[in-house]
Design goal:
- By secondary structure, the protein is an all-alpha fold.
- It is built from ten helices and no strands.
- The chain has helices at residues 4-10, 13-19, 35-40, 45-58, 73-78, 85-98, 113-118, 129-136, 153-159, 163-175.
- The longest helix is centred in the first third of the chain and has 14 residues, at 45-58.
- The chain is elongated and about 55 Å long.
């Protein structure tokens, strides 16, 4: 029988449910990771979505962050190398609606969640559009907040030459009465 951490990180929902006990949805690992963030690191997108939704149904705190680096559920979700963008976009909306900080700045290599997502250069802006659609539907997205290396998400996207993302960001700022020149 795998440990709770291993089941969340590497197994399907049925295996996870075998080791899960009610009340563990708010559990933190010895290294300071909330169980929800561990589940969002599952390498299989279907398992990631299933276990995360199970934990959210059980009352997991979507706003919980890693104790040491302050990264959020969005940082972990966006940092994965394999995705089912359509299924995960639904989960992303649920996380945001539940209160995860769309602008949370994590220490180190993470920056803002959008900086984390933009840095995944193996995915085109077109491929990332299901995530972008959810993010840009929000009224509280702060594209000018200082994040990684003191740069805004907009400046980071420009430096990464994410032209599709930059265009969406500039339109979002324009639609919200802000200037893209403030980056």
């Amino acid at each position: 029988m795998p440990s709770l951490i291993t089941a969340a990180r590497s197994h399907a929902l049925d295996v996870f449910e075998e080791v899960y006990e009610p009340g563990q949805e708010t559990w933190f690992s010895p290294s300071g990771l909330p169980l929800l963030l561990i589940a969002l690191g599952n390498n299989d997108p279907a398992n990631r979505v299933a276990i995360a939704n199970f934990l959210l149904d059980e009352g997991a705190d979507v706003a919980a962050v890693s104790i040491h680096d302050r990264y959020t559920a969005l940082h972990i979700l966006f940092g994965q190398n394999v995705h089912d963008f359509e299924a995960e976009a639904v989960l992303l909306k649920r996380l945001l609606d539940g209160g995860v900080d769309v602008n949370g700045v994590a220490r180190g290599r993470w920056g803002t969640p959008l900086q984390t997502l933009a840095s995944k250069l193996k995915f085109s802006d077109e491929t990332l559009s299901p995530f972008y659609d959810v993010l840009f539907a929000r009224h509280d997205l702060d594209l000018l907040r200082a994040g990684k290396a003191g740069r805004s998400s907009l400046l980071s996207a420009r430096l990464l030459e994410r032209q599709g993302l930059v265009a969406r960001m500039e339109q979002y700022l324009l639609d919200h009465g802000l200037s893209a020149d403030d980056s």
